[in-house]
């Protein structure tokens, strides 16, 4: 199978970490789509993913899967431990909820900030910006960090007692926060401690070793 | 179990349709949270769902699930046909992808339009509006309708050959489009025909019979 992505992208990181956790990297050919040149907004790529986002998984039979959660659910159902999307109905539900919350309250909010209230991918790619909206989303992400800090004061992982897709989504948030130079608030001690613990996982350490270049 | 929702809400409709498909309605006590009074933004409710959205499922042991996809995944894993979230890894992945796409490209876009570029839930609830952003999201939703129309020219359901959670998400989009009086473009014949076919399902017909009141 192929993964269309850009190695330093925060969303691609989610699927790369999931692949490493499932030990599936060697089954994948990575095809670079240059975000900084806007290749993800061109018609050839849009035919694969209408929403124009990375990453995209393409199976050998040509079937295409977009969206990090969808790709992770697929990979997780293919085989093996660790299970990233849960085993019981309740685990599955809670992990889906916390993953979505990580997107809404942190990762996606930082993405909107990046694309709308910073130079983002540059004037050739960012054809419309709404700075006020971007700044509000930055503030939302900061509130979100405090929320996840409160979650992690009560439990070791974002969705409870085990590492899951929801942790990976928040790690994506940390990666994007570093790119936009949005510091994690100092008082979010549980969140910072959790992030240090996450870096003990080879899958995460390997991804974080890729320094996010601006170009 | 309890569902906190508001009967005419487009997102609550998604879970109500899923419950009806799974024949689980009689297991549920519905607790009204009045959107028009902003009850979903008050601290009591925010303690249940940080994101302040409806619906929310509360189990008898007090565990709380928010987010339509998460709730549907949970209900679907509990028992019985029809399976709304897929059986094979690929079915699961495709349904997750198309559900997310229905949100991004139609349902969530209409929601942003409603809350930002119309009076929305009224001045006591809509404390911040960004009209320009709202109008862009309206246009995005209209493009999304054309996208789903193209999808339905090639296959009978949003995620392929079977009814799924992704169809329910687009139905949520139709419900919200009716509330904001955003007509489905006439040229989207496959989309309109699909929606007529969806109304043959008792779960959908019952939900659509609830006329959306403004208050």
From TrEMBL, chains A, B:
Pfam families: GST_C, GST_N_3. Residues 88-215 form the GST C-terminal domain. Gene3D superfamilies: 1.20.1050.10, Glutaredoxin (3.40.30.10). Residues 1-83 form the GST N-terminal domain. Transmembrane segments: none annotated. InterPro entries: Glutathione-S-Trfase_C-like, Glutathione-S-Trfase_C_sf, Glutathione_S-Trfase, Glutathione_S-Trfase_N, GST_C, GST_Omega/HSP26, Gtt2-like_C, Gtt2-like_N. PANTHER family: GLUTATHIONE S-TRANSFERASE OMEGA (PTHR43968:SF6), PTHR43968. This is Glutathione S-transferase. It comes from Gluconobacter frateurii NRIC 0228. The lineage of its organism: Bacteria, Pseudomonadati, Pseudomonadota, Alphaproteobacteria, Acetobacterales.
